[in-house]
Backbone:
């Protein structure tokens, strides 16, 4: 297992923003004013420090691959249409409650679908977010506690990643395509 997997294991890393940082990375955007959703997506994409088809963060890499598997994609060109972006510490995070998002481009690259995630390990936030699903939730999917593969074992970790990926694919299937890519 990579060193990275150990970093989001316990103690400080399991609380709030440090957990998001270790699990998802961050953008550290200097933009603090309100930005509309579509513009916030573009800013998050522009601020990426990594290739969205090959993220360095273990969880992002594993989630992207699990989404690819759940979509049934087998050739490399099709797999490259699935991109994952962190939004932690960006206007998308601050104003729209989105920590990470996956974009699935159509075959010609002219439009895409996006599914968004909010990550939280705080029990009170998880419960209130679940209740908010009935009312209004900002992100499509809540990522709650992700097992640490080094501490909890690889099987619970991969089961959680696959569970999240299945939810993402269900959400992608219901999304309208965004023309001209988001």
Residues:
């Amino acid at each position: 297992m990579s060193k990275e997997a150990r970093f989001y294991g316990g103690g400080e890393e399991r609380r709030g923003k440090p957990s998001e940082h270790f699990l998802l990375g961050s953008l550290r955007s200097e933009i603090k004013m309100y930005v509309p959703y579509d513009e916030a997506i573009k800013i998050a994409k522009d601020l990426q420090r990594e290739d969205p088809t090959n993220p360095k963060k273990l969880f992002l890499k594993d989630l992207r691959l699990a989404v690819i598997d759940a979509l049934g994609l087998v050739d490399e060109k099709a797999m490259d249409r699935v991109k994952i972006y962190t939004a932690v510490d960006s206007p998308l995070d601050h104003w729209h409650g989105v920590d990470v998002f996956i974009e699935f481009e159509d075959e010609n690259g002219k439009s895409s679908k996006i599914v968004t995630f909010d990550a939280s390990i705080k029990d009170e936030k998880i419960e209130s977010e679940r209740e908010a699903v009935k009312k209004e939730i900002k992100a499509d999917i809540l990522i709650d506690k992700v097992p640490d593969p080094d501490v909890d074992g690889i099987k619970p970790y991969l089961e959680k990643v696959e569970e999240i990926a299945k939810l993402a694919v269900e959400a992608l299937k219901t999304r309208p395509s965004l023309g001209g890519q988001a």
Notes: The first strand starts at residue 82 and ends at 86. DSSP finds eight helices and five strands in the chain.
